[in-house]
């Protein structure tokens, strides 16, 4: 078989064809991750998908026999190995199997695909469906996606919305150039379109590096790199559930610029279309930039025909990844960036549905610590933000780190990332899926045991919404008082009362660990132990900064608000439902000055300040307003407001803390006001 470049996909899966041995022991997550499989033999190239029950399904390339096989495991929320300590082999036989990837079947299982050696060493594409019990409804004779002449490789797949999948791949069966083919397999394992796949593009030149996303209607949108014009450009095509091409024959050109473009990544736009991002060499043949485009369900280009610049900073930007936030209707794009030196950093940008970048030009830094970063993977966090993981060499060997960011560009975990694995040896190729609770399962190839080529193993870790290793949860009773939150109120606090079940003392709660909706930390004071509801059970009163809470909640009659934290070594969690309103007239608006705001203005005082500074700004016409505090090193410290404002004057207070409630050192900071397309900055000096 012709081995393709290693492609670890952000979704993956598993399948057990052989005997599955149940494991009843309760799992626990270790500091540097848990082994996914205790069997002998090399294990590599893992991928992971949610099992829709709080756990994950993991697949990898293993060597339990003389031939590389696709092996599998399911892990529970607490790390329990549910399909046997040694996992199981996906498919028997003597052909080499490589590079697994998968998608959910939408019913608690998954469909996995892989590359398999065929006649005379050529590569074929196979797939199989598995349910949550590790059983497959497909027979051994089913699942051949393509066994055509030549080599099939670099496949991608997505759900067909009906427990099946649509698979696209690179194919050189014509012995002249590389083409892209596509095939659908249904829930029963039947290939539904032309045998060995539908040719997606018959244009001359190579078509390479496909990406795929469901169109939400039983079909898919596929993008690829296309060499028909003599240079590499980005094209796309949509196919319906019958395999018919719905757009222009041989695909639409995503970007009209006649420059080298490579590495397209694609995500649904939530409306039947897609957003595509890529590395673009229009400014230099050596240094890449990041561009993006949105396409409609009918194949129309919705943004600038030349593409929208996401990052055109100095140096080289490449390897973009993308996810969609349906809470705000925006896209998160992250990429590897060498603007500041010789090592890769990770930067990010948020883009709205119209193609406007919402954060600072050229993106915000996710991780800029010295050392290389690679193999970045990203998912949505389910509450309006994103989680990214990457391979990191800051300590001289490769480790695994992760970071969470919200829609306002605030980093939620430790500066430069939360460590996922710092074990001895090298860790490679992380992959990620959601745990459904604003956390993530992360898997990787691990060489802590020694020999890099023969002894690699697959490890996994469950990270919670706070970026910590997951621990069992104590169910708490959470009561917010009052039950209505006015987003325009001048009040300083949002008050919450926490009760714990018998056997736990609220006085033992670590106040620094208490977080609202995974984002807003409780204030260190005031706090008090009492019995607010006079039910005979002690509760802990904590308070959250009102402006920070308002930034993560949306208006509604019953808005879920979850509070988590630690009591001793145990993690607790509780949810209350409150009414959130956003009345048209803001209480912090100076009505007497409303008619006089004829231009954008920004003032702050006292300055220097300690502990807080009052920021006043003027809005001359209705506009989206963003007020942020930045460090002089270019890092976003905190977003104070991100709202739509009518004409008028407004105030907001900054308490000298970062976005996660941490105290900041004395020094110079920058207040940045964005009103529509106008930007004003003021220097702020914090003295302690």
Compile the SSE list and pairings.
Elements: E1 34-35, E2 43-50, E3 56-62, E4 69-75, E5 88-89, E6 97-104, E7 110-117, E8 123-130, E9 144-146, E10 152-159, E11 165-171, E12 179-185, E13 198-199, E14 207-214, E15 220-226, E16 233-239, E17 252-253, E18 261-268, E19 274-280, E20 289-295, E21 308-311, E22 317-325, E23 330-337, E24 345-351, E25 364-367, E26 373-380, E27 386-392, E28 399-405, E29 418-421, E30 427-434, E31 440-446, E32 457-463, E33 473-475, E34 477-480, E35 484-486, E36 493-499, E37 515-516, E38 520-521, E39 528-530, E40 539-545, H1 546-552, E41 556-567, E42 570-581, E43 601-605, E44 613-619, E45 623-631, E46 636-645, E47 648-654, E48 667-675, E49 678-686
Low-confidence stretches: 1-26, 585-596
Which structural class do the helices and strands define? mainly beta
The total strand number stands at 49
Distance between the termini: 65 Å
Count of helical segments? 1
- Major sheet: size, sense and barrel closure? 6 strands, mixed
User: At the third CATH level, what is the topology name of the domain at 473-581?
Assistant: Immunoglobulin-like
- CATH class descriptor name of the domain at 473-581: Mainly Beta
Binned strand content: over 45%
